[in-house]
Amino acid sequence: MKRPRPVSVITLKSSGPSSAKSHPYPRRTPVLALDFDAISVLVTTSHSNQITPADVAFARELAKEAAAFAVAVERMFRSLPTHGDTEMSRTVSSHSFKSGERAWATCHTYSNRSPILALYMGPFNVSFCPAIPDEVTDTDLSFARDLARSAAAYLAACERFHAKQA
Question: In sequence order, which residues have a C-beta less than 8 Å from that of residue 11 and are 6 or more positions away?
Fold first, then answer.
């Protein structure tokens, strides 16, 4: 199914201190926190106390694409071929996106530049990529691994919460 182009795009680059962390909670849905220096993006489900099959599907897609992003970043860092073809200003911002029917994730890989992980949530798009398009640093690689681990933990927490609802 062809997805509509997003109306808005937010690009966050993994320069400086960046991290990704899953926050599972016993009585509410989990939250995936993506921190970029002074900017924080929170990914959660469409409802704080219920997980839908669409939320689980999105979490699975996010985990899969985050893992693909980590592999592509590491391949570029190690000067290996990819599968397919500046420093960020100190803006302070925090955004929370709810998953649901219109949420999806994908990893764009290229042969001549670093990969881009894109999250689409309705009319919004958040992209993650190294600060320098043709370079992948240890910091970028560390963030990509952290993102993949956190997305996998977010998926596991969503699946556990969803199973409890059944």
Answer: 126, 127, 129
Predicted structure pTM score: 0.54
Q: Are 23 and 125 a contacting pair, CB within 8 Å?
A: no
How many domains are contained in the chain? 1
Establish if 3 belongs to a structural domain: no
Whether 104 contacts 57, CB under 8 Å:
no
Taking only the tens place, the pLDDT of each residue in 102-152 is 888 999 998 888 999 988 887 778 888 888 878 899 989 999 999 999 999
Provide the residue range defining the domain that includes 155. Answer: 10-165
Residue 11 has pLDDT above 60, yes or no: yes
The amino acid that residue 78 corresponds to is R
Q: d(Cα 148, Cα 70) in Å, to the nearest integer?
A: 7
DSSP-derived secondary structure letter, 78: T
